Amino acid sequence: MTVLEQLTAALGADKVLTDELSLQARRHDYWFLSALNDFQGRPAPNPLCVVRPISVDDVVATVNTCREAGVALITFGLGSGVCGGVIATPESVLLDMSSMDRVREIDPINMLASFEAGHNGAAAEEAVAARGMTIGNFPQSIAMSSVGGWIATRASGQFSSVYGNIEDIVYSIEAVMPDGSVVNFGKAPRASAGPDLRHLLLGSEGTMGVITGVTFSLRRQAEKRLSQAFYAPDMITGLEAQRQIVQQGWAVPVMRLYDEVESVRHAGDHHRDGCAVLMLVHEGPAARVDLEVVEVRRIALEVELEEAPAAITEGWLEHRNDVPSWDELLSQGYVVDTIEISAPWTRIGDVYNDAVAALKAIPHNLIGSAHSSHVYRSGINLYFTFVAQPNEEKEMAATYLASWKAVLDATAANGGGVAHHHGIGRVRKNHLSEDLGDTGVAVLRAVKSALDPAGIMNPGVLLPDA
Amino acid sequence: MTVLEQLTAALGADKVLTDELSLQARRHDYWFLSALNDFQGRPAPNPLCVVRPISVDDVVATVNTCREAGVALITFGLGSGVCGGVIATPESVLLDMSSMDRVREIDPINMLASFEAGHNGAAAEEAVAARGMTIGNFPQSIAMSSVGGWIATRASGQFSSVYGNIEDIVYSIEAVMPDGSVVNFGKAPRASAGPDLRHLLLGSEGTMGVITGVTFSLRRQAEKRLSQAFYAPDMITGLEAQRQIVQQGWAVPVMRLYDEVESVRHAGDHHRDGCAVLMLVHEGPAARVDLEVVEVRRIALEVELEEAPAAITEGWLEHRNDVPSWDELLSQGYVVDTIEISAPWTRIGDVYNDAVAALKAIPHNLIGSAHSSHVYRSGINLYFTFVAQPNEEKEMAATYLASWKAVLDATAANGGGVAHHHGIGRVRKNHLSEDLGDTGVAVLRAVKSALDPAGIMNPGVLLPDA
To answer: B268 burial class (0-12, 13-18, 19+ CB within 10 angstroms)?
Structure first.
């Protein structure tokens, strides 16, 4: 039997799709370069088939079939990845998790919520919000990403500075390993029971197994939310204010610093020439929010920031997930993307200056700008945006890749980490050794080979080219 | 050349000890059963030699020599482990990390501090305290444990409910892998760059590599500290108070609930018959501490706790690291230990009741009691203490192992995690599948085999008997 016949026999014809529309729709994720390739008539190939499991057993059967046949298995959540983690090949089986989307349990006493991995992020948040709780993970992609995808990419949300990144929010992860075994990592509130195996799957991008279920440790919805904003004379001063705030022990859920270029876009009429803008959202128990607003304001003013209208932050809250589609931008000839990195406080200013300068030096660059969005005691992330408009269509891909290289090289040269929360995929895989070192990449490769000796799990992603 | 000759040639005779005193002193860690075996004239054997490296290169040479010779390499920090993670065999090389104890760097801007792995925990804390900062990890063993040991065992400190467990405090980990390569995991404040490889070493207990250096993400020392205490009519009500406090968004650095038996010991004259005692320590920015004390007290009183003298908590703070030595207890014929586990809120009461009942049912048991010491949104730990006094010396080991089994079985039967923060070692290794499942143990075994194919790294520890 062919792989297709075996899958159909094991799962039923209704779960194994081969119609052109189904295949086309899942050829790739939301990576700009895949969209550009489509736009320019070089579309990624269709996969062999799309499998839509509705149970863990379906996933086990699919993994076993692919392993025995030596066929690549590419897991597809809801397709919001932006690093090229999903690109079909003609022989590959595309595992579409979107039909594994049940709520398994919401437990208000232990404040845990369990979902099948394909559950939509916004729907998951709504399900727990209806019980007065929050997952607390608010990526910009929340309406189009899956909870399993959050795990696979090590996602971060906009309120991460208090609620944590996804690794701080996840309680347990259920997965089908490449050998077909079903694991469930994370049994207890906290454990010292050997290495924390959840971390084999967090950030695995489909290379270590198929995530089938996720349980989150929830919070109560905040009693109160207040916003404020400040002008900083420049990015360096704004960064220093953030450092003081977090290192003095104030963990503000949202702290975002926009450089002048981005402030024009976000603050509108409230923009001040030459200034960066710091936006803060405080939430939690009412009495603590009231206190935090005052104390954080005091620190910001001490660092010589000036108060700005809170309407700036409120405007961001309202429009924070509005983004133009790649197609809108491509149709105007733009080459665009965002690139998130992080670095210690002492290096982040150089990362910012060098990366922006390097972006601007790229022919046809129109915009090289950045904002911070996730704050740590040891440092901070930056989220670069670039826009270029090459004269010739054939230069678009090269301009795109050169822009990425400019930012990642500037980051690595200044001691930063090349990936903050979007993952590695294909766009960063040959920069992974900047973070892990060659010895670290060798360790990751050894672990991957041990768990997936046939190499069927999303080949070509995460690990550098050999 | 013999292994001893090779090590001596590679490192120098001064770093390769074979005198009886050096060998005897490092035969085992602080596991009660090892102390009992010594006491009863069944001492663990001496290792082949004790290697005392002073550099990463020394460790690399030792690892390479052991791997090529197929000789077991047992890493020894400062010997405070209590689960049997270190027991020498006659052929083994004992790697004593205590001479790798330099402070590498203290960076007050990024609030990072780097130490060689053998650095004493209390000395590390003092080094950063002198600069106005804190690591924030205060295990009871702080004066006799190493920072590398904290990583290897996934340690927790007494202030963990706000400062986090060791995995939340560590920034990067340097290690020599079994193939002799040197890795440094953790480059950035946060990364989405594949699986977080620090977690291969956190909790590895010497089985995955030799940890040679640790960098911590620090905090500023707290501006203010306040203590309070409450009486709870019973453990269940006290646990409910803790659940309300943490789930309402108040993260108190120290929240410990002692059952009646332990309250007698800790509260002294302030003990109240029939009551459990809840101790809280608040610290941080002064204004927030003042607020937190009031808000947390309000919640505690709502759950019908009654205020108790803060002197109870202050007494604990003063004497929290005083413990009798095993030798003192053994000389009186006592069989004793503590066992830390965790469970979700809905299960922790049953774990408590069942474990205490099971301990008391063991012949010659004198005490079966518990307190909580680490709080999470999803649940809480319990720290059981047992004391037994068998009539016959030859029953001591069996009584000890039966007591452990009683608590771990009661925990697992009620859905708890069998190890909160002391690790697995030998005492829990055949319970590891309770946490990971058989499939999870198989994954851990596959990872271990991939990284250490010769099986030289601390064999016999962590993984269940095959």
So the answer is: exposed
Q: How far apart are CA A76 and CA A120, in angstroms?
A: 13
Contacts of A151 (CB under 8 A, 6+ apart): A117, A166, A170, A173, A201, A202, A211, A214
Does the structure show a pLDDT above 90 at B300?
A: yes
- Tell me the β-bridge partners of B28: B87
**pTM of structure:** 0.98
Distance from CA of B163 to the nearest CA of A (A): 11
Chain A hits for B350, CB-CB cut-off 8 Å, are none
B197–A419 C-beta distance less than 8 A: no
Q: Chain A: nearest CA to B421, how far in angstroms? A: 5
- B459: DSSP letter: T
Summarised one tens digit per residue, pLDDT across range B399-456 is 999 999 999 999 999 999 999 999 999 999 999 999 999 999 999 999 999 999 999 9
The stretches in chain A having pLDDT less than 50 are: none
Instruction: Point out the residue among B190, B222, B444 whose CB comes nearest to the CB of A376.
Output: B190
Tell me whether residues B192 and A440 touch, CB distance under 8 A: no
Cα dihedral across residues A414, A417, A420, A425: positive or negative? positive
The per-residue pLDDT for range B249-283, each reduced to its tens digit, is 998 999 999 999 999 988 889 999 999 999 999 99
Query: Cα separation of B19 and B4, whole Å?
Result: 13
